[in-house]
Specification:
alpha/beta, TIM Barrel, 6-stranded parallel sheet, 3-stranded parallel sheet, 49% helix, globular
Length: 426
Amino acid sequence: MLPRSLILGKRHAGQHASRLLTWAAVPLIGTLAYPALAETSRRSAPRPGAIPLIFRFDDCSAKSDTALEKAILEAFQRTHTPLTVSVVPRVASVSAFDPAPQAGVPLPEEKIRLLREALDAGGVEVALHGFSHQTVRRKIGNAYLQPFGRYHSEFIGVDEASQRKKIREGREILERELGIRAETFVPPWNGYDRTTLKVLQDSGFTTLSAARRGPVDLDSSLHFLPRTCDLQDVQGAVRAARESLADHPLVVVLFHHYDFEENDPQAGRLSLPDLNRTLGWVAAQTDLRLMTLRDASRLLPDLGARQFYWNRNALLWQITPPWVNLTIHWPPRGVYQSLPAARRAKLFLWCVVLLLYGSLAFAGTAISRFASKRLLRGRPLLAWSVRIICVVALLALLLYVFWDLEPYWAGVAAISWMAGFCAGLL
C-alpha cells in the first residue's frame, strides 16, 4: 500500500495549521478527560502476576521452515514459555496470494513429528490457521492500481457453506494428525467476517485471535484475544501494561517466520539470538503470567465480544497523526484493555480525532473564505469553476483513501481540509 502522506505533498500550509491546532487541542482534551482518567490511575499500580503475556507464532505449514520452527520451539521450551502455534492444514501449493484453484499440500511427517513432540513436552497449543492460507481476493492492475486492491483474506466474503467446510476439514486434519482438540482459530491475514464468527461458534470453537479490528457480534459466546504487539516490541508492551490505566492489561505477541533473518536475510528484523534474549528477559520478570491463547480463554475473565468491541482501536490509531501519538501516550497501544478502560480509551480517541479533523476542516473553510473574497468576487464563472474543481478533488480523495477500507491519517487530513475548503466556497 502506498504511503498516504503522498497525498499531502502540496498542502504544507494546511498541515502546519493542523499541527498548531493539535497542540492547542491537547490541553483542552486532557482537561476534559482528566477526572475519569485520574480515578483509574490510582488503581493502576502493577501487581505480582497481574500481566498475562501470550506468544502466537503464525503460518506453520508444509511449506514453512521446519529447521527454524524447531529452533524456535526449543527456545520456548528452554525458558518454559508457553506458545500458541497457528498451523495451516493444507497450505496452497503455488502461492497464498493467488486466488486461482490450487492443490493443498498436506503436513509432512517431519512437521507432524515436530509438533507432536512439542505438544508432548507441554506448554504448546496448536491453533487452526485457516485451511489453505490462500487469498480469495485478486490484486488488480499494475503498480499504480494495486493500492486499490482489497487486502488479502481466506474468509472475508466467502459463503457460509464454504467457510464451514474449510474450518471443519482443517480442524479434522489437525485433530487426526496431532491427537488434539483445536479450540482456537486464527484467521489468515487476521481477516474474517460475521459468517466466520457464526461458523466458529456453531463448530464449538472457544477463541478467536486476529487483530484489533474486524466485525463483532455482541451476542457471540466466543472469546476474543487479538494480537497487540510484535515480537520486537515485547518489552515496551510490558512496560506499557505496567503503567496502563487498565485494571487488567493483557499482551498478545504475534510473530512469523519472515520476521527472522534466518528465514529472510533481507526483510528479517530479528534473529534467533534476539529471540533468546527476549525470552530470557521475559523469564526474569516476576510480574508476568505466561500462557497460551487456550489457557487465557479458560482462565481469564471478561474476554467476550463487548470487551473486543471497545478495544477495536486499530483504525483510530491509523487516522491519528504520529505527532499526536507521540504527545498523548494514553491509551497504550501494546496492550488489550479491560472493558471499562477500553471504553474510556475509545471515547477519548474519538474526541481527539473529531476535534483534530474538525479543526482542520474549520481551517480549510476559513482559508477558502478569505481567498474567495479577494480572488473570486465579481467573477462568477471563475468561482463556479473553482467549486467544481474542488468538489471533484474531494471525491477523488474520498475514493483513493477509502477504496481499500484502510484509511490513514494523511488521507483523512486531506479529506477534512478539502471538505472545509469546499464548504467555504459555498
